[in-house]
Each structure stands twice: as C-alpha cells, then as structure tokens.
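ugh ok so i messed up the first submission bc i forgot one of the chains. this is the corrected input, ALL of the components this time, i swear. 1288 residues overall. if the numbers dont match what u have on ur side tell me asap before i send this to the collaborators (the ones from the other lab, u know who)
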Amino acid sequence: MRPRTTFQHCMPILKWAVVTVISLSGIRAGEISFNRDVRPILSDRCFACHGPDAHERKAKLRLDLPDGADGAYRTHEDSTAIAPGSIDDSEVWYRITSTDADDLMPPPKSQKKALTESEQEIIRRWIEGGAKFDDFWAFVPPSLPEAPEVTEKDWSDQPIDLHVLARLEAEGMKPSEDADKRTLIRRVTFDLTGLPPSLEEVQAFLADKSPKAYEALVDRLLSRKQYGEHMARYWLDLVRFADTNGMHKDFYRNFISYRDWVIRAFNDNLSYDEFVRYQLAGDLYPDATNDQLVASGFNRLHLIIDRGTALPEESFYKNVVDRVTAVGTAFMGMTVHCATCHDHKYDPLTQKDFYSLFAFFNNLDAEPETESNPKNGLQPPFISMPTPQQREELSALETRLDELGRAAEMMKEGGEIAASEPDLKAKLEDLANEFVAKQKAYKKERDQIDSQVAHAMVMKEREDIRAANIMIRGQYDAPGDLVERNTPGFLPAMKKAGETASRMDLANWFVASENPLTARVAVNRFWQQFFGVGLVKTSEDLGAQGEVPSHPELLDYLAVSFMESGWDIQALLKQIVMSRTYRQSSIGTPEQFARDPENRLLARGSRFRMDAEMVRDQILATSGLLSNTMYGKSVKPPQPDGLWKAVTMIGEHFEPDTGESIYRRSVYTYWKRAMPPPQMTILNAPVRDACVARRERTNTPSQALLLLNESEYLKAARTLAQKILDPSNADVAHRMDYAYETVTSKLPDDKERAIFQKLLDDLLESYVRMPDLADQICSGLELDGPHKKAELAAWTVIVNTLYNLDITKTRE
Amino acid sequence: MTDPLSNISNLQSRRSFLLNTGMGLGASALASLISSRGLAAQPNVQAKAKRVIFLFMAGAPSQVDLFDYKPDLQKLFKTELPKSVSNGQRVTAMTRGKEQLIAPTMFNFSQQGKSGVWMSELLPHLSASADDLCLVHSFITKSINHDPGKTSFCTGTEIPGKPSMGSWLSYGLGSLNKELPDFVVMPSAFWSGKVNVQALYARLWGSGFLPSKHQGASFQTTGDPVLFLSNPKGIDRNVRRRMLDSLAEVNAKHYLEIGDPEIQTTIAQQEMAFRMQASVPELTDISMEPKEVLDMYGPEVSKPGSYARNCLLARRMAERNVRFVQLFHRGWDHHTRLPENLRGQCQDVDQPTAALLKDLKMRGLLDDTLVVFAGEFGRTVYGQGNITRDNYGRDHHPRCFSGWLAGGGIKGGIHYGKTDDFSYNVVEDPVNVRDLHATMLHLLGVDHRKLTFPYQGLDQKLTGVEDARVVKEIIA
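and heres the new structure output, hopefully the right one now
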C-alpha cells in the first residue's frame, strides 16, 4: 500500500501506521521491481504531466515508456531524462532531489508531494540497476507461475497455500492454527450463503469426524439455493441494480427478471465467460434464449431521466457513458470514464479508445429518456415471458377480445342499417353496448394477467449502426473525429466476425484467454469476498493508480487456473475455501492486528464486519422468521416513517409490505435510489447510483443505534425469546446456552453464562417491578399473567444483547 | 495495553474506560479518525469560520426577482431577448424553439442598510440584515436541470456517487463535538410554492467514496429526529443502560480473547449511541427557548418540519458545534405563476432566515459561522407561458445566478460580481460552483487543493479536476 492518505503529516501515529503497512509490500532486499516499487511512484507523482495523456504532456517527456521521441531515455536539449546506470546523467534524479524549488519535481505548486527519502532511494537503485521498464503487470496476460519453495512443507501442498506461505516465510512469519470447527462452519456458511448455520448443522458438523466432513459441508453449501442469492448480492452492487431510475422523478422500473437471472446463473454455476457474454451481448445470440435476453439488461441498469426536463441529446450521451463506465468497472477493473474528456492520465487509455468502446454501446433501439410512470415499470425495449398457462390464458383472451370487437362493430353497423326499425335498432345497440362492456372486463382481466407476467428490459440494436465521435472535452454537443468500434489499443486486438465489430465480438474479446484483465478482475473480487480485501485492494481499479497486488503470483495462478477450469466459479470458490489459508483462526495478538490490520499477508483468518444484508438476514434466520421464498418482485420491509415523503416530487409514500414478504432475504428489498432502505445504507450499502466493486466498512454510532433499536429487529428478538421459553421446545435443555448458541453458533463459557445470568436476573426484577414496560414488549401476545410477560420481556432483551455482540455481526 | 476488564469492573468510571478503549482503536479506524483530528489541530490555512449553515433553496429561486436589480428591463417588457445576448445558448426541453420574450420583474427593489445594497421587496426581514450580506450575482454552473444541478452544487460534480460538501468537511475537519453528528441535513417538510416541486436525493448528503460515518444525518420531522434513536417500546433508559453494561463486559472479554481492536471500537460506538439518545432530544427540544426568540423566527416555528423550526434548530446546532448544517427548502421551480409562488416561498424563508442571522449574531456565533444561501441555478429573464406584467414564469438559467454569504469571515453589505443588462451573462468576476466550494473551505481553514481522498486512481477533491479559485475579494 502506498502512503496516500491525506494529512498524514499531521499525526505521527498515522505515519507509524503507514510505515507498518508499507512493510507489507515493501522492498525485499536486493531486488527492485519496476511494477511493484517504481511504477506506483512515477504514476502518482509524474504521470499527470509526463504520462500517457499527450495533451497534457510537459517538456516532451513521458515516464511511462522508456523509448520513443518522448520516452524516458530520450535526450532533449542536452538533457537525458533517465540514463540507465547513472543517476548523475539522469535529469530525473536531479529533479526529484533538487533543493531548488524552481527545479524540484513534482513542482510544489502541483500539490503533489515531493518524493520521500525512501522513494528517492527506490528510484536511485532502479536507475543504477539499469532503469528497466516492464510492461504494466495488469496489461500483460497472466501466465501460470511456478509453485514457490517453502520451508514448512507440511502445512499444505495446495497452490494457494504455497503462495501465501512463501510470502509469510519471506517476512519471517508463520500461519495461524486452524480455526475451531464451530468458527469454521459459521464462517464458511456465511461466506457461501450469507446466512448462519442452524443449530442442527453445527451439531452435525461437530459430530462428523470424517476427514471429508469439511469438504462435504462445502459441497452442501455450494448446492444450496441461498448460495445464488448471496453471490448475486455482490454482483448487484457492482452493476448498480435498483428498483428506480435514480433521476428526476425517480420512477419505478422493473428489473426483477435480471436479478432472478443472476441468482439462477450462480446457482446453475453458469461459467463466468458465459455470464459475461450474456450480459454484454445476450441479445446478439442467434435465437437468443430468454436468459440471454434478460442478462443483456445489464446494459440498461444505468440511471435514466424521465422526459420533459433534460435535453435528450445530453441524456443520450450520459446514458452511454454510464453504460461504458459500468463495463469498465465490472469487467476491466479500470476507470475508463476518466478518458471521456482527455487521454487517461495514468493508464494508456486514450480518449479515442474510450469513444471506440462507446461506439459499441450507443446503438440501443430506444429513446434516451423514459415516459412518466411506465406501465409495470417497463421501458422499451422489453420482452414478455409468460408461463405456458399465462400464454394460453392471454391468447384465449385476445381471441375473445377480437371476437367481441368484431361483434360490437357488426351490431353497430346493423343498427345503422336498421335505422327505420326503432325496435330492432335499439336491440342491436343494446347488444353492441353489452359487447363493449364485456370487452372492457376482458381487457381488465388481460392487464391483470399481464402485470403478473415476467418481463425484462433488454438490450436491442438499432437496424443502422449509429456513428460515434470523440466528444471534445466530454461535452455531449461537441463532436470531434469519427471513431469506429474497437477495443483499447494497449490491449490485445479484437477479432471481428463480420465487417463491423459487434458487441458479441467485444464480449468474446473480454473472455478470450489473451485478455489480461477479465480473469484477474474477477478472481480478485471473489477473493475479496472471502478475505475482506482483494489481493489487489482497489478491486475497482487494477490500473496504474490502483494498488499493486499483495501476492502477484497467486493472483496470476488463480486467474489462469480459473480460465483453464472453463471459468468455473464454484470450482474457484471451493478451492479458496478448502485452502488452509482460508481455514486459519482469526484470533491474533494486538501486536499482530496492529502490524497487519487488514490481514494483507494472511497470517491469520480474516475478521470483518458482515454486510448490512447479512446482518439483517441472520437476525431473521436465527429468530426463525426468515422466509425462504425466492425470486420475483422486490419487497418493502417496514422502515421509519416519512423518509420517502421527505424527498419525493411525485407524492410517494412508503407503504410497507405485510406478512411473509417482510421477512424475505434482503437481496429482495425494494431499492429506491433517492432513498434506499436505511437498515442497509447505515451499514455501508452503497446507494446504487454508481458501480461499486467493494463496500467500505465503518463502525459508527448510527450502526449501534440501528442494531439496538430497530423495531423489527427487536420483534425478531422477541420471537426467538418465545422459542427459548416454549416448554414444548425439546431442543432447549439449557435456555441460556440455547440462546447463545442459536445466535453465535458457539457455547458460552462459565464467565459468559454468569454475566448473562446476572443480566437476566436484573432484567426480570426490573420487568416484574415495571409491568407496563413488560406489557409493551409483549403487546399483541396472549400470555398468562404478569410473570410470564416479565419473563418474555427479559429474554427479549437478552436476545437483543446477543444480537449486539461484536462477534455476532462479525464474520470471524 | 490497558486491560479493559480492570476498567469495566468499575462501571462508574465509564468515561475513563472509554478513553482507554479509544486508545486501542483499530488501526483502520484510527487512520480515519486521525486524518480528521490531525487537521483540526493544524489547519493548513488560517480559519475564519468553524462551521457552516447552508440554506439550500432547491428548485432555483429567481435572481431576476430577488437579487439582481435591472431597472432598465421594465421598458423591454415582452420584447425579444437579443440573440447577441443568448448567443445560441442551450435551453431546456421546455422552452426549446420558443420565443424568448423578456419578463421584467414585477417587484420593487430598494437600497437597504448603511451599505445601500439593493434588495427586493419580497425580503423585508432579510433587508434589515443587508449589511451582513455579501450578495454574489455572478454564480455560474454547467447544469441546466435540477437533478444534475443539485448534485453538482452539493457534491462538486454532476456524476452521482461523489461525497457531498458536508461529508468532505466532516472528513477533513473532524468533530467539534462528541455527542452529535458532524453533518446534519434538515429538509423542510412543507413549503408554499405549489408548482413543480423537485425531488431530493440521499446522494445530496451522501458520503460517496468517503467512509460513511461522514454522511449527513438527515433529521426527520416525524418520529426520531435521528433514525433509530429511541429505545423501542418496552425498553427504557435504565434497561438500556443495564443491558449495555453486560454487553460491554462480554464484548471486552471477547476482545481479550480475539485481539481485534475493532471490538473496542464497537464498544465505544455503543456508548456513543447511548449518549446520543440524550443529547439529540435535548438538541431538538425547543421548549426552553424564550418567547421573544421564538417570535423572532415567526409563527411557523411552532410547526415541526417548517423551515422556521429548522432555522432555529440550525442555531441550536451551531451552539453545539455541529460542523455543517444544511437546510433544504423546496418549491422554487417557478415555470408558471412565479409571482404568486415566489411570494409564498419568500414568506417561508424571509423572516426565519433573518432571525437566524440575528440570533447567531446576538450570541456571538455569526463571527465564526458561515451562512450561505443559494439554489442550484438561476432563472431566465425571458418568460415562460403567456406572460403579463404581473403573471409570468421563468425557465432554468445556469449562466448567472445570485446567492449570498454572511458571517464566518465574509465581508458584509457588498455586491460581488456583475451580470449584463439582461441578468443573462456574467460580465465581471464569475464564481463557479467549485469556486464557492473552494472559498467555503478556505474560510474553514482548508486549502481545497489539499483536501483529497484517493479513489479510483485519483486524489479526489470536492472542487474536482478543474482549477478552482478562492474568492478572496469577499473575505473580510
């Protein structure tokens, strides 16, 4: 990690923290790696003026390349920027070490920090060692590294472990013990399904002494439906999935089929290359299946404005940029939108490259703005996917409607012909009216069925390919040179199937084995899910300004083996969770936590707070309230009053759902971009108006308030308390143990038992003394007498306490 | 390392316990804490203000009718705006291709205070504070529609996903108080302008890529002012206290066993939550405010959620050192029936805003509290709809708009920046939105170029990638 935190100069303690962290990826004696050690310095301090952006380039010098007229080795007006082997002949060395403010680089007025002594030292050793440039690591296709040599050969022979261990041994460290079985089943169940293990599952795992017990558990978890729901959640952050448009009137829109597809795709273990291809270009398959079409809705997930306020040309431009940005973040791990206005300052992505990508995505056959409140939340183009029964019913209704229409016409015409016979005329008119009324009723029925039919907003090309231009300084109304559909010049070339490149060609290019980014970006994100931090911490940016990987060979190993496995996601995940690295205990000494707070070296299991959805879902699961219903419409669990009203411009009022819906998993919670559910955002869920590859994790008083006071969470606590007190519940041998184990998957020790028992006694005493208070907790329940109420109230607070333990909300 | 259990054994000394646990905060938490504390201790520019109250008029009030005095326009009623003035500028989808007929304001302007600044008759109370106001007439924005306009005003860019002003301040300056959020947002629950009420978005006070503890706490009008503040029914403060004691004891035991300092942060935040349960209700309880103070804010102050009540709360927050308070008052988007709707809106804000300034001043708080009043853009000098002398509407206008600043190191009683004769283009001293941000930061002692956060490969700034200018001319 590079010390890029602002204001670090202010506090010595932070310097200490930074120094400690530096040692994680610091220089190993004797070797300077251009990519690991030198490039980050050059990128951060020099590239803005001496990098890939030709427009901003100063003094005809670029330091991202060695050769060429502007390259780092060039001599210009008698001065050589970098002379391999000699710092004395290298102008760069003079500039970065100069004491003359006029000569110093980076110039003080640039607001970039001067190089520190240790950074200067790196540059010195690099120049003296020959100033060798390497291609940027992430843009070179990964190759299978050799398994590293380790001393502790007995620890594991799994490739992941060998890479991790080699690094630890180089740092003079050792891996931790294996985690105990209770911790392990809790960890892996959360990591693979987002839910805690049940008491029975814990017991069964403890009882299973077979050496294959853990592997069998992993296989079971991977085959669960909840696996797909959990995996989908991360994907939905990345593609900014939401239930509303996110602009102006923030109308509802219907993307539920897309979410359902993502869940199914993970459960069916759709290979990642297909997963990518479907989303980028599902609509372009010959005879595309519904799944492929639904997946192509990925290209429609951007924010969109409703008609009548913005300028359509501007909206059009913004939509396409948003689409391309998503592709950049999700599949390339690059901040491509930096190149909307100018060549990228840090990565070799030119403005032309950006608009050549733009040219693949500017051809959606739809208006750039939506109508107000579209029916069923569907904005064209969309597809209908009725079930066979719905299809039959709809077609029968259409036939009836046609017949009725014709019949009504005939009666009307007949009435006109029969003008001279008033009786007949009246009769015919009556009949016509009757038919019209029937028609209305059938139409209503048809609409009713139609609203139940699954639909999906999809991608669709226009007949003619729309021309694309470079937009000068990123302005929607300033077209510059025409560009053709193409992939960035610094990456391997794309193969075209036809005359003009198609999105399918682009999709195939992304998943071609020579593409250096796609697999790395994907495995890094999956890794992050299991260790809290990716091998490249900046999982949204693997470019020059991103972090260098903590374990570069491991990342490449995973990327290559992932591709070789046929992009088999479950195989990758299984390999990760089967590793001994993953199975380590997360317990450490304060010194170990201080030395490596984010566990980048993996000398222990990772310990980090669960995401908002997992926090909520586990409360629902352990209390027994969780609904297992999958798929379909988003649901609205209760939230504090007035939140929507405070922001809406169309008079929306949040109406919570009732019944089972409010206990469905959080992945199904309705997501209004203008005001997402606070139970989620307070715990760091993103707003979903931009693609997010990793959530941050904070620990705040508002989170404490949420977990202590949210009324639904207290209701869940009461539900579990009822179970604890239920005399017919044979599982409850010892109430406190049952409560503790249900919530934490662990048994309390004597000390914990004593603390909770004392708390229970005190609470009981309080609630007996204050029956009104107990009544409030027990409201709506039929209970025998005040003591029963006090008991339930006290146990409710006990469970509330358990739900607020740090170990409950933390994945250990 | 202190043994937390030894402290817990004496639960009376909770404060010392917390101080000690604070010493053991996780390095990640520590790093984020330190960055703010560090700067608060050592601002990189001399600070003139400690806190900001931002009165955001969502929907865009008309500068033509409120602040930018152009008497000569009266003669040009219903004449075409010269093409040389509009110069092919893009307009909204609503007035594209339509005639641009000048609609002079129907409201009178007069000179106010010792300084003699020009004020509209719609703002009589605020006119009494004219000598405190720095009226800026040369604001410019790139956005022509509300959504991007508000987003760029509040976060520095039209692209959603960036941190808001208040989040940047909370991140850069840290807390001045221990028991309240650094950044509070109060949207009015009602307003008078009945046409075209624009939406608000949580992103306007979101923390973007900054740690979410810096996001604005939006105070609610109904229920808890801070979400989930109250204990649920059946749990009173004593029960909560008793429960927290055991909770802390078990958490601290786990810390000793597991070693992760994050557990100590959890304990500290649970205690902070408990303190907020007392401090927030105390903050929002106005029953002890003297009658003369309440009267000063006008009759609406009695209604929770009114702009007047929020102004009073803003003062109470300033007293308690909340770093950044942002009010949102909606209802300014007057495409039609502007005079009627604008009158109503001014009635909503005029007296309470003036009272806020006076109240702060009486308490000596105006000196180090910066108050800013602005909307996301201005309105066109040409009318919308069938215009008459006393009924017209106006479209969005990004090329110039007016707002004002007061207190916190600002020069009072001045006009800054000039527009052309049509209140259409800025002709002198343009102030971009990023310049306003840079100036606010400067007053708070922060160099906008140095307030950065690394994200997506850039040192991100509130003021963005283009150069921003501190408007030194308006600083006292």
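quick check: Chain B has 14 helices and 17 strands. that seems consistent at least. Residues 1-42 of chain B have pLDDT under 50 and may be disordered.
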